[in-house]
Write a structure and sequence with these properties.
The protein is mainly β and 511 residues long. It is built from 8 helices and 37 strands.
């Protein structure tokens, strides 16, 4: 996407929810995770299924009026698609279907086409074809089909390569491809799929022009993605994990099992708005379970979040980094009433977080704002400023641009959650036990109006970020203002921070 991503770091701008043994999955390099058991769901509010192990079967016979596709004929699916009118239904017989052995050979659907796989129908790219389904046709449906072995380039996807609008992808296995399993368009519905073992993402919800709206991701198993370990190949790229969302306006992410991905589970990055992330099981991802970054207005509720961030959190702690690398990480993301959404804040409530590396971190970089070289989403500005060139001196130092040119972590309401920590389970003694609200000391660039500790004061005490009525089990610590200020529960609740009113802490019960 032409974006340079940043590392977690201090004091420069850092980036940046159950049980590993129960999943029977691994994150071993080069070995895609396999689900051998159901997700751990104690505390979960909805059933999350083993989609990869127990997929719903497609029609055993061709539906009335459908065009039958023969796996014995190479290129039959693409050819019959070309020769049939829009709104045709295609039924793929059992067997291994192949495209012509050319790099760019692919199926280019017409508007309203439907592709249904019989039990055992596989579309195999054989590591020869880049894309499975592409083009710009709207309202295409793909059901009960396994799509595997395609090699889309970095940041591109095998299915819906053109990010066309209105696609419905259900009960499919999209697995063992390079790049992303699929791209996203507006009004796309992704339901009850197995998105497994892909080289980069399970899904890349990015479209040129930032026009993705009303996205539904429901009941999927998203497991073992980023097998190509892109953070190692491109350090600091921020380009890995289960799903990446970019500039999506309106998304419902519910009832998914997101587990054992190398990197972050779910990552909403850059000017996303109006997300509901609910009733998911987010489990055993190497990095954070959830990152919501330079984005707006979200409800994060009733999720079960366990054993995430063990790999990346421990790695950074072993390097001596004091930053509270979190399992739920909000980075320059907050509620904004001026942007239309179903909520005007970020509300995080009725979640269970158990034995993750750290809890929730609210972070804001004083150096990241429109036109700053420290803005790694280069060229992007906040949704409050349409003309990025306005965010320059001297105007940026005065109202309204002083407030509107910077993404702010504000209006975050964290309540009614249960946070459980047993350090013996994590095999951890320090740096894995923190909640945090903090910023860096602004230093960069020279013309920045945000130098000093003004942003740290604002995020900690002035921007309506509030923890309350939570339950803490285990030896939790609390960070406020900057990483050096680590407090016990009494100090966190007392003046000047006055956090977690109505909350309880049992420091010994976690183990």
């Amino acid at each position: 996407m032409g974006v340079k991503w940043r590392n977690w770091a201090w004091p420069a701008a850092p980036l940046g929810l159950v049980l590993l043994a129960a999943t029977g999955c691994t994150s071993t390099p080069g070995a895609p995770a396999e689900a051998s058991a159901s997700p751990s769901t104690s505390g979960a509010r909805s059933a999350v299924g083993r989609v990869c192990a127990e997929p719903a079967a497609g029609p055993a016979t061709a539906p009335k009026g459908a065009v039958t596709v023969d796996p014995a004929v190479v290129g039959d699916l693409a050819a019959k698609t070309r020769n049939s009118p829009p709104h045709t239904t295609f039924w793929l017989r059992p067997g291994r279907h192949r495209l012509e052995p050319e790099r760019y050979a692919q199926v280019v659907p017409k508007e309203g086409n439907r592709y249904l796989g019989a039990p055992g129908a596989v579309l195999d790219g054989r590591r020869k074809n880049q894309y499975a389904f592409g083009g710009s046709a709207r309202d295409v449906t793909i059901r009960h089909l396994t799509v595997q072995g395609f090699v889309p380039p970095h940041d591109e996807g095998a299915v819906n390569h053109g990010s066309a609008d209105g696609w419905v992808i259900e009960h499919a296995k999209i697995q063992y491809n390079s790049g992303a399993a699929l791209m996203a368009g507006a009004r796309q519905q992704v339901r009850a799929n197995c998105l497994r073992g892909n080289g980069q993402y399970g899904m890349n919800a990015y479209k040129e022009g930032n026009s993705i709206r009303d996205l539904v991701v429901e009941g999927n198993e998203i497991v073992g993605n980023n097998t190509d370990d892109w953070e190692r190949r491109k350090p600091g790229c921020g380009c890995t994990g289960g799903i990446k969302f970019w500039a999506v306006d309106g998304a419902d992410i519910r009832g998914n099992w997101v587990h054992d991905n190398r990197g972050t589970g779910l990552w909403a990055d850059t000017n996303n708005n109006d997300f509901r992330i609910e009733n998911n099981v987010l489990e055993a991802n190497d990095g954070a379970a959830l990152i919501y970054e330079i984005s707006y207005n979200a409800v994060i509720r009733k999720n079960t979040i366990r054993r995430n961030n063990w790999v990346e959190g421990r790695r950074n702690a072993d390097r001596g980094d004091s930053f509270p690398f979190a399992t739920v990480y909000l980075s320059e993301a907050g509620g904004e009433p001026r942007i239309d959404a179903r909520t005007d804040k970020i509300e995080i409530y009725r979640n269970v977080l158990e034995n993750n590396w750290n809890g929730i971190t609210l972070w804001e970089s004083a150096d990241r704002f429109c036109n700053s070289p420290a803005n790694t989403s280069s060229g992007d500005c906040t949704l409050l400023v349409k003309d990025t060139d306005r965010c320059k001196r001297p105007a940026i130092a005065t109202a309204p641009l002083y407030a509107d040119c910077r993404w702010k972590t504000q209006r975050v309401d964290i309540h009614g959650n249960r946070f459980v920590l047993d350090k013996s389970v994590l095999d951890c003694t320090v740096k894995c036990d923190r909640m945090a609200v903090l910023a860096n000391y602004g230093t960069y660039p020279d013309w920045s109006p945000y130098k000093g500790d003004g942003v740290a004061r604002a995020i900690t005490r002035e921007q309506h970020n509030r923890w309350h009525d939570n339950v803490y089990v285990g030896p939790w610590r609390f960070v406020a203002h900057d990483p050096s200020r680590v407090y016990d529960f009494a100090r966190w609740q007392g003046t000047p921070y006055q956090q977690d009113a109505g909350s309880t802490l049992d420091p010994g019960a976690g183990g």
